[in-house]
Amino acid sequence: MKKVDQFLDSLTDETLKEAADTFFGKRKELEDEKEFLRGQAEKLKLQAESIDALLSRLNYVLARGKAAEKFWSDLGHEPLADHSLEWKNDVVVPRAWTRKGRFLALASKLYIQAAEKIKVYLRGRYVDDPEIKGKKRLTVNLFTLKDQISRLNKSIQEVNVCNSPDEVMAFARRLEVEGNHKKKFTGSELVYDYNQDLCLTELDPADLGLKEYPELPTDKEAMRRVDQTLRKIYSEFKIEIDNLFDQ
């Protein structure tokens, strides 16, 4: 009888260990995934800083912001007019015979650069995989990250339902109802809301501080519209814009 008890104790311990490994193992995997996605979000924030810098320079060129609202409103992207004004000498001003020509070329250049960076930010681009020769990989981007977060949260919901802490602890108690040591191990002498304390929390994209940008088209028709808008702005704000190039 003693050998049978020892066997049952051993089996109970092994089952408890396996249950614990499964319970905490799944959670460790999901927590690691959350940390990875947070790291991806930080990379996107660096891209956003570069985009904001270009938009700030473009708004500055638009008569020091006076024409920014008109420009973006005509293109259907009013919120982009709210970007702060900033100018640095790291921008190469295109050559042209007239101030108008320089303005049109510079504003179009900044618009295209911002559009390209926004596209990479939103959709990513394929680059050479540093680990596998001849293979391409997609760079971190907002659309993919949101999709990954959605899948992660779905997995978290499934784990919280199918392997809820309360159910796991109840299972452990059923395996061992005698012995103070194992009662303490399984928590049978204490009362906790394990679901509240141990359930995984989902990853909220809003908490990551990721910015949203509209996609800016750069096809022939879109650039024709940009050029027309810029010409109207120059006519209306000629003095302010000319002053920018006189400094």
Structural description of this entry:
- With 247 residues, the protein is mainly α.
- Helices cover 66% and strands 2% of the residues.
- The protein contains nine helices and two strands.
- The protein has helices at residues 2-61, 68-74, 99-123, 142-162, 165-175, 180-186, 194-198, 220-236, 238-246, and strands spanning 126-128, 136-138.
- Strands 1-2 form a two-stranded antiparallel ribbon.
- It is elongated, with a radius of gyration of 30 Å.
- The model is unreliable at 4-8, 164-168 and 170-197 (pLDDT under 50).
Look at the helices and sheets and give the structural class: mainly alpha
Task: Compute the number of helices.
Answer: 9
SSE series: HHHEEHHHHHH
Could you say which overall geometry the principal axes of the C-alpha atoms support?
A: elongated
Strand content range:
under 5%
- Stretches where pLDDT is under 50 for at least 5 consecutive residues are 4-8, 164-168, 170-197
Amino-to-carboxy terminus distance: 98 Å
Strand order of the largest sheet: 1-2
Query: Mean pLDDT, as a whole number?
Result: 79
Q: Radius of gyration in whole Å, from Cα?
A: 30 Å
Taking the sheet with the most strands, its summary is: 2 strands, antiparallel
